[in-house]
Design goal:
Blueprint: H1 9-17, H2 23-41, E1 44-47, H3 49-62, E2 73-77, H4 92-95, H5 106-113, E3 117-122, E4 142-143, E5 146-150, H6 156-163, E6 169-174, H7 180-185, E7 189-192, E8 212-217, H8 220-230, E9 260-264, H9 274-289, E10 293-297, H10 305-320, H11 339-350, H12 353-366, H13 372-392, E11 398-402, H14 418-422, H15 429-434, E12 438-445, E13 451-457, H16 463-476
Helix pairs in contact: 2-3, 8-16, 10-12, 10-13
């Protein structure tokens, strides 16, 4: 079945269970698709094809497809550790020696235990630092809707991989929008769960108080199925919540009657693409026609979110990147004069410009004499942003906003302008700072056929509600049915 790669998880599971399709055929279809289109997209940086086919044959032999993910091929972002599989964070500091972890991340372990089949690793901005997957040591990932444009970042490889049918679903990480922005750019569904809902164990840390693990899928239904497996307390990650995980699939009722949907004025700004604004406002009208009530709200500290994020995030980067010193693993330097020179050479040769930039900013913000002026102040503003959301959720159930101010930009358009790149996450960093969940779904296309994303956010632990609302909107529209022509 050559076109099996185009199926959703739910569709593939139905065919596998009815013996109309085998896991081997499904896996081979995805592999063939990768071989056919990834030379253009550059979404997959490490391939596990032989191992994937071997696993698929074992699943077929067992003949049991009781779990919705059994026999389903997926891709995972290259900051996840998979045992004995190259895991490089798309950085030369690990690529140089092709780092092979001796252990498995909790997320990939849970997926594989359910029978999902790993096809390999997807491209990402180096150590997830970026909003376009242009800082990867493997080169930029292209958008399947227009290969002159970026797929977004930092989970750009995961979003492009799902969007081009190279896999049935993918997993990524979201610090300040890194699942939701590329999912939106590629017309996919991307979810950032509540901080602590999914385990970060075995995932390379960028900013530990912000990083969150989540899925990128073709539909909201698929997102619920993957979340059922990913979510839950992990003894190996003390930041995961000891809180029951509902069956997210049962929330997909298609009903939003009586729900109050907030529309914050701060998210419709000057310079925003008019087609994006129209599509999002039309989405609000669609929600209203389905029985929801649209409520105008204010999140007054939104204007400080990006500045706050880019003090806190680099500060945590500065701490987390200290482990990459070339002593225990990774890149090694030749002919150093002494230990200090060795460290200097390893990190100069191994890290790219954006990683170096964030280390320097973070180290400065944390240094004696500046800690109170920058880092402590940023944490205070972070609290104000959290309080804005908490206050808003007293009067509304969910908040509806654009995923980004403009559609996917041309590759190289923001080279040399890191501030403009940082502003790509202007509508998404607040959820990262607050630890609250968010989900993006397609809500239209620009006149040049580039996808437009609709973003929904909710209170802590409200994934069930967000999936319900996103699914209802998805069922009432046809945007998720469109496919790129690549």
């Amino acid at each position: 079945m050559a076109d099996a790669c185009t199926l959703t998880i739910a569709q593939a599971h139905k065919k596998l269970k009815a013996k109309e399709l085998t896991a081997t055929e499904l896996t081979q279809s995805c592999i063939d698709r990768i071989e056919n289109v990834d030379g253009v997209l550059n979404a997959v940086v490490h391939k596990n094809f032989d191992r994937a086919l071997e696993q698929a044959k074992k699943i077929d032999s067992a003949g049991k497809f009781d779990h919705p993910l059994s026999g389903i091929p997926f891709l995972v972002k290259d900051n996840f550790c998979e045992k004995d599989t190259p895991s490089t964070g798309c950085s030369n500091i690990l690529r140089d020696k092709e780092y092979l972890p001796p252990f498995e991340s909790t997320s990939t372990k849970r997926l594989k235990s359910a029978g999902a089949i790993s096809l390999g690793k997807t491209n990402t901005d180096e150590f997830t630092m970026g909003a376009s997957t242009e800082t990867s040591c493997f080169g930029v990932t292209k958008n399947p809707w227009d290969t002159t444009r970026v797929a977004g970042g930092s989970s750009g490889g995961s979003a492009a991989g799902v969007g081009s049918d190279e896999c049935i679903f993918a997993v990524g990480s979201d610090t300040g929008g890194s699942i939701r922005q590329p999912a939106g750019f590629c017309a996919m569904v991307g979810m950032r769960p509540t901080y602590g809902r999914t385990s970060r164990f075995g995932v390379m840390s960028m900013a530990s108080s912000l990083d969150t693990i989540g899925p990128i899928c073709k539909t909201t239904e698929d997102t619920a199925l993957v979340m059922n497996t990913l979510a839950g307390h992990d003894p190996l990650d003390s930041t995961t919540g000891v809180i029951d995980v509902p069956d997210y699939s049962k929330a997909l009722t298609g009903d939003v009657k009586g729900l109050k949907v907030g529309l914050p004025k701060e998210y419709f700004i000057d310079g925003m693409d008019p087609e994006v604004e129209k599509a999002v406002r039309d989405s609000a009208k669609q929600m209203e026609s389905m029985g929801a009530t649209i409520v105008d709200i204010s999140l007054p500290h939104t204007e400080y979110a990006v500045a706050t994020y880019y003090v806190i995030c680099p500060s945590e980067v500065s701490s987390n990147m200290a482990r990459y010193d070339g002593i225990r693993y990774g890149h090694t330097a030749k002919d150093p004069e002494d230990l200090v020179d060795y460290y200097h050479k390893v990190r100069t040769e191994g890290f790219g410009d954006e990683v170096k930039r964030r280390i320097m900013i973070g180290t400065y913000a944390l240094s004696a004499g500046y800690y109170d002026a920058f880092y402590r102040q940023a944490q205070k503003v972070r609290t104000l942003i959290v309080n804005d959301f908490k206050e808003a959720y007293k009067s509304v159930d969910v908040i509806l906003t654009p995923t980004y101010p403009t559609p996917a930009f041309v590759v190289g358009a923001l080279d040399g302008d890191p501030i403009a790149m940082y502003l790509q996450d202007i509508f998404l960093v607040a959820q990262g700072l607050s630890g609250m969940p968010g989900i993006t779904v397609p809500c239209g296309f620009c006149s040049n056929n580039l996808p437009i994303g609709l973003h929904l956010s909710g209170p802590h632990w409200s994934e069930e509600l967000l999936l319900k609302v996103a699914h209802a909107y998805e069922q009432a529209t046809e945007w998720s049915e469109k496919k790129p022509s690549i």
